């Protein structure tokens, strides 16, 4: 049985060299695979310990009452019923998270694509510079705190200073302490940070689209650049589009750091509260680990669910 | 040559107004992206009187390094010397990044080039892990760290960083382009897989190393130490930056100086490695 399995998995090249592998060759293949497993092992062990196991644990802990000190107590679905029936703040967090994801997700995805598309039309040197401009915010670490100064609530804030100077307002607006503004500011900063890996993937994807397809398209009656985009470019870079979607969706559901930094924690009337900040509240402040894990499990289901649905939709692009 | 001339002909079909609109659009958004970064650099170089000018100015008029000097004065009076925060961030970033590039490359090679039982399952789990944020696993990770006795150690930040899934994903996709013939030639010469990995595969995937480096670098460079670090001596630069900013308006100058430093390092690495990264990203696509 073992041998049959190893023979089935002989790399193609080796199979071509010897159509009827001997016992000795079979053993050699097994040995070769052992080397594959050895190469994989260090990464995979850590990956399982720090990613796979924690997901399983989060799901298990979500059915318990756990405060890190005592042994977890089984409570069944109680954490989940509490989340939806008793916790009003959670419902605000869900609403905000979906609002963020529903706006930041699609807009940032389109921004990544549109800017990649435009940047790609430039000459190489300008292209490199523009790529840097668009990508820099997402790699600049915690520099988004500069927005705190831009939207600062006193007259030294850039926006307030500007509006006061023009005489549009008489009093500085406390942007970050006002429910009407804070959500939108977090959203704006999140968009500012969102031209990340997907943007680079799209630039790369556009550069690899086969130029001869455009000529063929012109012969087939493609008239303008929108048709060219829809019928040729998008289908040709579908793999990058799928990858970019995963990156943007996951990030858009995980909004938290920007909210905590700009709007404070908790934000005024929970105006910028998200599922992740709610999770942090219960996990790192109140130490209700069972309940926090239930929130984490919900977040996991929502993120993976959204990704799976969007993957299905994107596979239809250009069809 | 003929492709170029046809491409030019095609451009002629495009309307001038459309071009103008698109490039204006590009310019406006480029400004939106860049202005906050310009503020950061410019604030770091502003003397105190310019920082509190009304109305605020975008660009510095009399650049000075006083804020950096102030920063070191400020931090020399703190309990933990400022150099310690820099050391912590640099150490965590370098150790985590080197480990990640090595381990992810070693795992990507068999996933890309060998056929063994469990290969597609392992890779699907890695792809699945791209679909949720690591924030989902914060709480169990805390429990695991305390089992391991790693709370309040560098290891709690560095070791999990070795196993970022995005790095493995990109590296594996990139390695798939290596021609099999090269690997087979090495095999016929009797090289072990370890040797092939180290002497044939690794030199071929240099662009991907740089990509994994910048991605891991940017994550670790910005890390606060999460919930795992409590000792002041082990805290990182972003934490120090936040402490300074919390000091309020009088700390605006030194705060801007740290922010500029935090920003300049990853941006410089990106400037140097941009073309390699784009090259890696060309193979980043998800196959159907």
UniProtKB/TrEMBL annotation, chain A:
Q: Is Transmembrane one of the keywords?
A: yes
| Organism per entry | Cohnella thailandensis
Q: Where are the transmembrane segments?
A: 37-63, 98-120, 132-150, 181-204, 241-260, 289-310
Which keywords does UniProt give here?
Cell membrane, Membrane, Transmembrane, Transmembrane helix, Transport
Query: What InterPro entries does its record include?
Result: ABC_transporter_permease, MetI-like, MetI-like_sf
| UniProt entry tagged with the keyword Cell membrane | yes
User: What Pfam families does the annotation carry?
Assistant: BPD_transp_1
Q: What is its main location?
A: membrane
Please state every residue range assigned to the domain named ABC transmembrane type-1. Answer: 94-310
State the source organism's domain of life. Answer: Bacteria
Q: Which biological processes are named by the entry's GO terms?
A: transmembrane transport
Q: Which GO terms describe its cellular component?
A: plasma membrane
Membership in a protein family: Belongs to the binding-protein-dependent transport system permease family.
Compartments where located: Cell membrane
Q: What name appears for this protein in its UniProt entry? A: Sugar ABC transporter permease
Membrane-related topology note: Multi-pass membrane protein
From TrEMBL, chain B:
| Alphabetical keyword list | Cell membrane, Membrane, Transmembrane, Transmembrane helix, Transport
Q: Which cellular component terms (GO) are annotated to the entry?
A: plasma membrane
Q: How does it sit in the membrane?
A: Multi-pass membrane protein
Where does the UniProt annotation locate this protein? Cell membrane
Q: Name one GO biological process term.
A: transmembrane transport
Please tell me whether the keyword Cell division is annotated for this protein: no
Keyword Membrane assigned to the entry: answer is yes
Give TM segment ranges.
Answer: 20-39, 85-109, 116-133, 153-171, 196-217, 256-278
Q: Record's InterPro entries?
A: MetI-like, MetI-like_sf
Gene3D superfamilies the UniProt entry points to:
MetI-like (1.10.3720.10)
Q: Where is the ABC transmembrane type-1 domain?
A: 86-273
* Similarity comment: family membership: Belongs to the binding-protein-dependent transport system permease family.
Query: Mind telling me what this protein is named?
Result: Carbohydrate ABC transporter permease
The source organism is Cohnella thailandensis
């Amino acid at each position: 049985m073992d041998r049959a399995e190893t023979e089935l998995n002989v790399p193609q090249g080796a199979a071509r060299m010897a159509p009827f592998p001997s016992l000795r060759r079979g053993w050699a293949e097994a040995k070769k695979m052992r080397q594959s497993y050895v190469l994989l092992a260090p990464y995979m062990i850590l990956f399982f310990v720090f990613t796979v196991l924690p997901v399983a644990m989060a799901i298990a802990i979500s059915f318990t009452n756990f405060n890190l000190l005592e042994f977890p107590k089984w409570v069944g679905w109680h954490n989940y019923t509490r989340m939806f029936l008793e916790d009003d703040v959670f419902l605000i967090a869900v609403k905000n998270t979906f609002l963020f994801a529903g706006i930041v997700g699609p807009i940032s995805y389109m921004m990544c694509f549109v800017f990649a598309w435009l940047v790609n039309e430039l000459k190489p040197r300008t292209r490199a510079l523009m790529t840097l401009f668009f990508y820099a915010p997402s790699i600049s670490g915690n520099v988004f705190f500069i927005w705190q100064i831009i939207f600062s609530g006193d007259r030294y804030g850039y926006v307030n200073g500007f509006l006061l100077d023009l005489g549009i307002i008489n009093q500085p607006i406390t942007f970050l302490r006002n429910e009407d503004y804070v959500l939108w500011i977090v959203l704006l900063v999140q968009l500012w940070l969102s031209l990340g890996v997907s943007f680079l993937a799209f630039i790369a994807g556009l550069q690899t689209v086969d130029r001869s397809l455009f000529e063929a398209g012109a012969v087939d009656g493609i008239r303008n650049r929108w048709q060219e985009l829809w019928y040729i470019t998008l289908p040709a870079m579908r793999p990058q589009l799928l990858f970019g979607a995963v990156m943007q969706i996951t990030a858009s559901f995980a909004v938290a750091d920007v909210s905590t930094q700009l709007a404070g924690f908790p934000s005024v009337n929970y105006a910028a509260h998200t599922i992740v900040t709610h999770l942090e509240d219960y996990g790192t402040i109140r130490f209700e680990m069972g309940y926090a894990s239930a929130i984490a499990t919900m977040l996991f289901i929502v993120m993976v669910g959204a990704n799976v649905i969007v993957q299905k939709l994107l596979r239809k692009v250009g069809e | 040559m003929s492709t170029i001339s046809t491409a030019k002909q095609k451009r002629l079909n495009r309307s001038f107004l459309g071009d103008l609109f698109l490039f204006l659009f590009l310019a406006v958004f480029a400004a939106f992206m860049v202005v906050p970064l310009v503020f950061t650099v410019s604030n770091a170089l502003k003397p105190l009187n310019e920082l509190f000018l009304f109305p605020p100015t975008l660009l510095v008029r009399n650049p000075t390094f006083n804020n950096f000097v102030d920063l070191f004065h400020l931090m020399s009076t703190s309990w933990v010397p400022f150099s310690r925060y820099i050391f912590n961030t640099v150490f965590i970033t370098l150790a985590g990044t080197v480990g990640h590039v090595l381990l992810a490359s070693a795992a990507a090679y068999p996933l890309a080039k060998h056929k063994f039982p469990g290969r597609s399952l392992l890779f699907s789990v890695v792809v699945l892990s791209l679909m949720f944020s690591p924030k989902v696993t914060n709480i169990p990770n805390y429990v695991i760290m305390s089992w391991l006795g790693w709370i309040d150690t560098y290891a709690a930040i560095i070791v999990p960083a070795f196993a970022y899934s995005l790095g493995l994903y990109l590296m594996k996709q990139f390695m798939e382009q290596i021609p099999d013939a090269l690997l087979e030639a090495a095999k016929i010469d009797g090289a072990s897989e370890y040797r092939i990995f180290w002497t044939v595969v690794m030199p071929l995937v240099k662009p991907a190393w740089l990509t994994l480096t910048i991605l891991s670098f940017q994550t670790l460079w910005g890390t606060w130490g999460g919930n795992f670090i409590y000792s002041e001596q082990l805290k990182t630069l972003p934490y120090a930056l936040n402490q300074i900013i919390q000091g309020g308006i009088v700390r605006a100058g030194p705060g801007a100086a740290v922010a500029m430093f935090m920003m300049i390092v990853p941006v410089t690495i990106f400037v140097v490695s941009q073309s390699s990264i784009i090259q890696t990203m060309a193979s980043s696509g998800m196959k159907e």
